[in-house]
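Support request from a user on the community tier.

User writes: "When I paste my structure tokens into the form, the page sometimes reloads and wipes my input. The last time it worked, I copied everything first. Here is what I submitted, just in case something in the input itself triggers the reload:"
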């Protein structure tokens, strides 16, 4: 029977080590110097010539050292020597001769060279050491992965029994519609006969998709906790190794373990790591291994009869790149989208994350939820944690509203930078931020200005923060153009006041270009391009290539660029006119910023000379929409204007 490839590689490795060790043992010189073997008469001649420094004698063997190197016969010159005194020369008065020549005479043990055991140890010691280390790591890796021949084919999935993980649906909030769908899975795992007697075949797989942090993994663990069944969890990337075939072997082992522990749940996180559509690129290396792993998953899921009691849950942030065979009925029958929570959902999530956090009386979770549109569960958890850290640094007994406000600023706007601006640069920054803020206050339907600051944060020297009053999931063309006008307000203010511009509008230009390009190429808001989609959505360029899912001619791309330029330039002209007509408001807000550095919402509107209850930005309440963190299907969010 032929040996497996892993065994052959192991013995080849040992053979190479052995040969290398023998070669090194022959090449590396001995640490012991050689002794020159000379006749007794030659030794006496050297003594008489005053060339012997010391001697050491035991019985008839004499060893010693010459004062100068001596070459005898064909040997190399040496200083150390050895000779044997003949038995008939015992009365030749050698001792007296040595003493007359000032030779040091002693009687230390004769150097007989290395023993056989020491020679073997020096020769084979390195090889034995390397072999021992190699065997140690083999056993350690095999033990960590569950034993077996190097344990390469064993699944790395972590099993969480019901007693070990008691996450329940009470720990999940803000995604009620998905939670209700998953409760049906829990009921099937608890009461499978109710469905089988009616001939119902339960879904073999459930795919959870949504942006990062929405709670997909938490939902899967809640299903396992509620159903009180074993839960096998791992990331899709853990299937793939450099050795082709290992991933498929691990898939087989994972499904075997789950069937033996049925009813059970298999959860595969980041499914797109191995579930991408097949057929692209060459079949070499990791690509071939990924396809073999995917094929094995397809085979295993198709092999379910429905009686095993094993359900596969998977999560991905990019369902659009998955192979069609994964999504067909019979595999991932049910696909659930986990969206960002609305305001009520954010309140419920905040209540969960503040269970163990003492809150001061001035903290109103509904206000926190209103100021965090678009944030997902992971963002809200991070917000509460940052607030608790800030409160601890300030020696507060409870987390206050001010702590949470500062935490939100730190997360959204960036940490403060301890740098000193010159008076000229500080004034220019104040005009820049005032330009953003004044246009945000003037533009109908714009998001209200919540904070204006010329304190350097992150990469920006100043920040204008706008956020909506209500959640919204779609934007109209007027609102998007208003966003562009507001983002260009800083550049327009610099040109109006100083007659020249700086590099401070770099991020503003990137933002407005992105919005205008998607208005033209994705949402049909250009009469020239028409009602067609000619550019990919953000994040899909990598999945589909530079051309996106739709192949576009060079002429069409040129038209898109021309329309983008037309929209941006038109909005910039509008921004300059509005600031010129309201220069008094710009100057007033700038002076207030230079005096106080940071202005909250009411102070900012008051400093600009606006009546907060009747500003143009509030005239169209229906136009309010998320400014910082919108839903993934909405236009790209504008970061705080800088």
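"...and here is what came back when it finally went through:"
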């Amino acid at each position: 029977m032929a040996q497996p490839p892993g065994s052959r590689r192991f013995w080849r490795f040992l053979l190479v080590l052995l040969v290398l060790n023998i070669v090194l043992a022959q090449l590396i010189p001995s640490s012991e110097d050689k002794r020159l073997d000379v006749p007794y008469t030659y030794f006496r001649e050297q003594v008489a010539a005053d060339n012997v420094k010391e001697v050491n004698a035991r019985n008839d063997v004499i060893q010693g050292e010459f004062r100068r190197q001596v070459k005898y016969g064909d040997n190399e010159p040496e200083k150390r020597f050895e000779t044997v005194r003949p038995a008939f020369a015992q009365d030749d008065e050698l001792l007296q001769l040595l003493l007359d020549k000032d030779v040091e005479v002693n009687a230390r043990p004769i150097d007989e060279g290395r023993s056989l055991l020491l020679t073997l140890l020096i020769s084979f010691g390195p090889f034995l050491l390397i072999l021992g280390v190699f065997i140690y790591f083999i056993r350690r890796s095999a033990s960590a992965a569950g034993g077996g021949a190097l344990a390469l084919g064993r699944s790395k999935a972590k099993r969480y029994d019901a007693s070990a993980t008691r996450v329940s649906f009470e720990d999940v909030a803000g995604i009620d519609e998905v939670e209700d769908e998953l409760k049906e899975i829990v009921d099937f795992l608890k009461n499978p006969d109710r469905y089988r007697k009616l001939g119902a075949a339960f879904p073999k797989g459930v795919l959870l998709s949504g942006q990062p942090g929405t709670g997909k993994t938490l939902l899967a663990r809640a299903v396992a906790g509620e159903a009180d069944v074993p839960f096998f969890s791992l990331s899709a990337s853990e299937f793939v190794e450099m050795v082709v075939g290992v991933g498929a072997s691990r898939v087989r082992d994972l499904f075997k373990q789950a069937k033996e522990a049925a009813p059970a749940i298999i959860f595969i996180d980041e499914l797109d790591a191995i579930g991408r559509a097949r057929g692209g690129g060459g079949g070499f290396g990791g690509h071939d291994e990924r396809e073999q792993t995917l094929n094995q998953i397809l085979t295993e899921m198709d092999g379910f009869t429905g009686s095993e009691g094993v359900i596969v849950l998977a999560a991905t942030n990019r369902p659009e790149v998955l192979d069609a065979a994964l999504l067909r009925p019979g595999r991932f029958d049910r696909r659930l989208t986990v969206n960002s929570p609305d305001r009520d959902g954010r309140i419920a999530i905040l209540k969960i994350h503040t269970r163990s956090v003492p809150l001061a009386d001035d903290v109103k979770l509904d206000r926190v939820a209103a100021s965090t549109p678009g944030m997902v569960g992971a963002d809200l958890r991070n917000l509460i944690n940052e607030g608790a850290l800030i409160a601890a640094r300030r020696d507060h007994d409870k987390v206050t509203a001010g702590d949470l406000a500062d935490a939100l600023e730190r997360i959204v706007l960036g940490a403060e930078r301890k740098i000193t601006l010159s008076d000229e640069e500080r004034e220019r920054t104040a005009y820049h931020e005032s330009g953003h803020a004044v246009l945000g206050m003037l533009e109908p339907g714009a998001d209200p200005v919540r904070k204006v600051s010329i304190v350097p944060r992150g990469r920006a020297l100043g920040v204008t923060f706008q956020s909506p009053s209500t959640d919204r999931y779609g934007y109209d063309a007027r609102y998007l153009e208003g966003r562009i006008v507001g983002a260009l307000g800083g550049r327009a203010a610099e040109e109006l006041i100083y007659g020249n511009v700086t590099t401070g509008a770099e991020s503003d230009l990137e933002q407005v270009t992105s919005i205008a390009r998607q208005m033209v190429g994705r949402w049909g808001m250009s009469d020239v391009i028409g009602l067609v989609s000619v550019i990919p959505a953000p994040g899909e360029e990598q999945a589909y290539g530079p051309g996106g899912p739709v192949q576009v001619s060079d002429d069409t791309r040129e038209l898109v660029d021309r329309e983008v330029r037309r929209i941006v330039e038109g909005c910039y002209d509008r921004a300059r006119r509005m600031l010129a007509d309201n220069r008094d408001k710009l100057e007033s807000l700038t002076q207030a910023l230079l005096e106080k550095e940071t202005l909250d919402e009411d102070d900012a509107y008051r400093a600009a000379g606006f009546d907060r209850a009747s500003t143009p930005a509030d005239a169209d309440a229906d136009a309010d929409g998320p400014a910082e963190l919108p839903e993934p299907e909405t236009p790209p969010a504008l970061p705080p204007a800088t």
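Agent notes: The reload is a front-end session timeout and is unrelated to the input. The two ends are 71 Å apart (CA to CA). Residues 37 and 137 are 49 Å apart (CA to CA). Escalated to web team.
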